[in-house]
Design brief:
It contains 6 helices and 5 strands; from the N terminus they run βαβαββαβααα. It has a 5-stranded mixed sheet. Helix 1 links the parallel strand 1 and strand 2. Helix 2 packs antiparallel against helix 3 and helix 4 crosses helix 6. The relative contact order is 0.15.
Length: 155
C-alpha cells in the first residue's frame, strides 16, 4: 500500500478471488461497492480474466504489484485498460497483488465520454468491454452509449 498513490488508511484484504466466473462476478460487484480499498492475490493465468471483470463493473484505476520484494519487482498504478491490453499480448509471471481503490461515482461529460471511447476503440476493445468500462460513469443508457460507440467507430 505504501508504494501506491492511493490515500486513506482503511482497506479490505480478501485473499484470492474466486476462480469460477459466476462467483468472481459476484465478488467483483461487492468490491465495487466497498467503502475502502480492496487488496487481493491473483494468479498470473487468471489475472486477465479478473481485470476484465473489474473493468466491466466500472473499475477504471487499479494498482498491480508483481513479484514484490524480489529482483523483478514491478509496481503499476493507472488505467485498468492499459493492463488489459498489455496482458492480452503476454501473460504476466510471478505472484500478483491487485489493489482496487475505493470507487467514486462520476458522470463524464460528453466530450470526456467520446474521448475515452475513441481511446478504447484505438486500443482494440470490443463494444462490450467499452460498455463495461463506462458502467456508472455516464447518465446515458447502455443503448445510447452503444449508439455513440458505433458513431465514433464510423467517423
Amino acid at each position: 500500500l505504501s508504494v501506491l498513490p492511493i490515500g486513506g488508511t482503511e482497506f479490505y484484504f480478501g485473499g484470492f478471488l474466486p476462480s469460477q466466473e459466476k462467483n468472481l462476478n459476484e465478488k467483483v460487484e461487492e468490491i465495487v461497492n466497498r467503502k475502502e480499498k480492496s487488496i487481493f492475490f491473483e494468479s498470473p493465468h487468471r489475472v486477465l480474466k479478473t481485470l476484465k471483470a473489474l473493468s466491466e463493473n466500472g473499475v477504471d484505476q487499479i494498482g498491480l504489484c508483481r513479484e514484490l520484494t524480489k529482483a523483478h519487482e514491478e509496481v503499476y498504478f493507472g488505467n485498468i485498460m492499459d493492463l488489459i491490453v498489455r496482458y492480452q499480448k503476454s501473460q504476466p509471471k510471478g505472484e500478483i497483488v491487485l489493489v482496487i481503490p475505493q470507487q467514486k461515482s462520476k458522470s463524464l461529460t460528453k466530450i470526456e465520454l467520446e474521448s475515452e471511447i475513441a481511446d478504447w476503440i484505438e486500443k482494440g476493445l470490443s463494444n462490450k468491454e467499452i460498455l463495461g468500462n463506462l458502467k456508472g460513469k455516464s447518465d446515458l443508457t447502455r443503448k445510447e452509449i452503444y449508439a455513440l460507440i458505433e458513431r465514433i467507430k464510423n467517423e
